[in-house]
Amino acid sequence: MSDLLAGRADIAAGLAVHGADAVDASAPASVRAALVAADLPARLAAKDPTLWGPAAEATARTRLGWLDTHARARELLPQLAELTEELADLDHVVLAGMGGSSLAPEVIARTLGRPLTVLDSTDPGEVRAALADRLDRTVVVVAGKSGATVETDSIRRAYWQAFLDAGLTGAEAARHFVVVTDPGSPLEALADELGVVVIQSDPEVGGRYSALTAFGLVPAALAGAPVADLLDDADALAGALGRDQDNPGLALGAALAAAATSGRATVALVSDGTGLDGLGDWAEQLLAESTGKAGRGILPVVVESPDAPGARGPDVLTVGYGGALGPGTAPAPADVAVNGPLGAQFLTWEYATAIAAAVLDVDPFDQPDVAESKEHTARLLAAGPPAGPPTATEGAIEVYAPAGAPADLAGALRWLLAGLGDDGYLAVTAYLARWGDAAVVGLRPLLARATARPVTFGWGPRYLHSTGQYHKGGPRAGSHLQVTGAVTDDLPVPGRPYTFGDLQAAQAAGDRRALADRGRPVLRLHLTERAAGVAQLLDAAGRTLT
User: Of 88, 180, 414, 526, which sits with the fewest C-beta atoms within 10 Å of its C-beta?
Assistant: First the structure.
């Protein structure tokens, strides 16, 4: 680990990046010096679309609005204040959105201690539980750039039907919805037809860079968060982003790139306990989806604590994050520490990710490999998921081992870890209920303790809109453990010929097919009884992999 206090920190607007110079100095040549020589800080601050090469230029021209969207977003504040007052009796805010439409507002609400229910799951149990929770006091924020995302559309349909079933008229149900979308989108047209309030987002900002647009601000404001403070934080930092010195975004971006190009392409994201609850989940999507393509990329791993398995390693860059530090307070031990207010954090990480992508020579604004899982899902919804017997059944777990792997649970898990080699990683994805089956997250540290390689964890289908791009388009080094579960109380998707259980199963199967098509090993474990299966799986991981 670097001595964070030995080198100079980049500080602006109350946000400090410590340790970046030491990481940059450990590379064969200074990445930061090369970026400054190319005038990249000033060019990025000026929205130069040529920074990522000719192939990315057209996309970049329409995706650099995040650099100053915080200034334009101030125009929303009076509207948000009025809307919050009008809907004061609807104090249970539910957000239906995926990826960038859900991760940033969840961070804002958690950090500022405001209640917000993020529903980004197709698990029928989780959706059913949400529908039963204070429906008469619920306002649903439906967020998406187009509205075509199947998860968001399905949840919108379920809530609309629930309000009608509760005896509300269409006009009365419409009052329980707020739509956030791009101008002219199909979702905007639908909302106008239904009489639902629409708040337009910034069309020149892509989803994962949209934290300080309406996507991040609307649900947080309805939940009672002081969103103007976030804009103030970002505005105070923005003037530093064109500088060569005292530029936290440049420092962090150069450190990420220097590490990635000199053998440390895994970034362990760890909270230092000083606030900013959940920022790692947001940064995970930003890094993975922006850089994981063309066989390259930065692999982010959200770890539970500074001493958790996987937080350190010879090929790992450990990045701590947290709120602003008081006078005389040192940052927590990490290779790089990023401390400061949340609005400035959002802008700093976005800028740093764009910088790192330029060094890695990838387009930070596209996601070329995301659509394949969606296409497989659509076909499987029409034809039904592939059927086949398990290779073994042990207690509450059915094992579906790939060809060449041992058929039993312990043997298949050992085989999966043994196949990681010296440069692989393991991705655990759980197509289960994020809240009801929360204990399954314990798999990540257990499996990370059993191997010297990185282990990530993601909820399906949430992860498809977060780290899924990296797993399909990044380095061909990933192995995958997919956990699915039996559905005992399914729920229809109104107006569709399938249920939420059908959709969840098709998404899991489509994901497996997309990974297998790319030669990634996939082991599926199906829990025939969820609580017992999770407990059995955790026990098996602890006993057989140590």
Answer: 88
